[in-house]
C-alpha cells in the first residue's frame, strides 16, 4: 500500500471519528431537550391541566357533589341540567353577557386595527426627535387611567354606561401596545416599496391600504388575538365604566354568581367553563400566529 493510500485512509478514519463524536453529542443534546420538554409539560399539566380538569369535573356534578370541591368522579352526572340552568338564569343573563362581550370585543378590535395600523406606519417612517418623543408618549399611555376622572369625563361627553363609551375606552387601553407592535413590524418593510408606489402614482391612502396593510397580516393576527383575550376577560373596566343589569358582560356574570349563588358551585363552575371556551379556542388555533407576529418585528427597528 502506497503512502498516498495510507494518508487517504487515515484522513477518512479521522473524519469518521469526528462524525461519530458529533452524532453522539447531538444525541446527548436531543436527550437533554427531551428531558426539558417533558419537565415543562409536566409543570404545565400541574399548574394548568389539573385546575382545568377541576373546573370541568365539578361542573358536571350536582350541588352536593360540587360543594365538596374535590377531583373525584361525579356520582350523579348533571351535564345538561347544569348548563341549561346557567343559560336560563335571570332571563338568560349569561347569553346577554356573551352578546355584549362579543359586541364590545369585535368593535374594539376593528377600531384598534384601523387606527393603530396607520399610526404604526407613520411612526415607523418618521425620523428624528419626534419619533423618540412618540415612543415616550406611547409608553406613558400604558399607565392605566384613574377611575374617578375617567367616569367624570365619560359622563360629561354622554358616553358613561354606553356601548360606544366602553368600546372607545377598551380600544384606547390597547392603543399603546398595538402601536408598538405595528411600528416594529412596519420597520421590516423596505422604504423603497413606499417610494416605488408613490412614483407609480399611488396616493397616501392607496399606498397604505393597497400596498402596506396586506403585508401586516402576521402582526394584525397577533393584535387580534391578544387584544380580544384582554378585552373579553376585562372585569374592572366593565364593572366601573359599564355598570347596569342590561350591560352585563361575561366576567361580571361570575361576580354576580359569587354574590347570588355563592353555594351553587356546580353552576359557578359551569359558568366558568362556558366563558372560558372562546378565548381558549382562539388561543389554541392562533398561538403560532401570535409568536410569528411578535417576533417578525424583532429583525429590524
Structural domain count = 2
Q: Work out the radius of gyration.
A: 28 Å
* CATH architecture assignment of the largest domain: Orthogonal Bundle
* CATH class (first level) name of the largest domain: Mainly Alpha
Count of discrete alpha- or pi-helical segments spanning 4 or more residues: 13
Structural class: mainly alpha
Please identify which CATH superfamily of the largest domain we are dealing with.
Answer: MetI-like
Overall number of strands: 0
CATH names the topology of the largest domain as MetI-like fold
The succession of helices and strands, N to C, reads: HHHHHHHHHHHHH
The best one-word shape is globular
- What proportion of the residues form beta strands (DSSP E)? under 5%
First-last Cα distance? 62 Å
Largest sheet: none
Q: Which regions contain 5 or more consecutive residues with pLDDT less than 50?
A: none
What does this structure look like?
The chain is mainly α. It folds into two domains: 3-59; 79-296, MetI-like fold, CATH 1.10.3720.10. The chain contains 13 helices and no strands. α4 runs antiparallel to α10, α7 (163-186) packs antiparallel against α10 and α8 packs across α9. The model has no long low-confidence stretch (mean pLDDT 82). Keywords: Cell membrane, Membrane, Transmembrane, Transmembrane helix, Transport.
